[in-house]
Amino acid sequence: MSSAPTPRPAQQSRPKYYDLSLAHLPPPGLVSIFHRVSGLLLFFPVLPLLLYAMYATLGSEAGYTRWHDFFTRPAVKLIALAFFWAYAHHFFAGIRYLLLDLHWGIAKAPARTSAVAVLVCGALATLLVGVRAW
Amino acid sequence: MVKAYTKMPVGAHYGTTGWLLQRLTAVIMAVYTLGMLVCLLWDAPATYTDWKALFAGPFVRVATMFFVMALLYHAWIGMRDIFMDYVKPTGIRLALQFAVVVALLFYLIWAAAILWAR
Fold this sequence. Notes:
The complex is a heterodimer of chains A (about 130) and B (about 120). With about 130 residues, chain A is mostly helical.
């Protein structure tokens, strides 16, 4: 009659999985981990950097010119491009997740296709901005 | 003797609100991103005056502030998820979450100050 749960046995040691290589992941797995990594990058350092850039460029003409000159350096362009990729990937992957939440393309085959599309779109957008910046 | 059955305190469902709001804020940010992209491609600001003029209108200011507020909530859920997954010691996790909240609130005030300066 009692509905009391049976006590759990003592915690046994469970196997741990420490393979951090991404090479074995299928496209949806890559999209997922890149979504997380890009999100973390966007929180830090992109968000404070972007706010600082807005603060400096909108604040005074001297600040605008300084940032303008700063962005002519190839190394700065390259880093900014990496941050742009984080935004682009997070954007495209996010749209894919929103559609998956609506059960749109939820089956294995279309989900895999859309994952490849997200990876390609992120890379393509970055390439486009890169070409425009140089 | 029947033992009193106490239910495990799980399933408060506050997570659902966060999950839903993370998606709503994502939609706000996606719309702003596309709008700003069109603005920047249509008439690219080439000088300080152009750049300043872009953020001078009340519509762009309010839209940007909406974007920032959506971003801050979205970032809070995202960072909380990352900490919950990887930072196991409760004290360190709470300290990190506290630091994120303080940083985000600071960013909110900073964004408003930048947009409505002078």
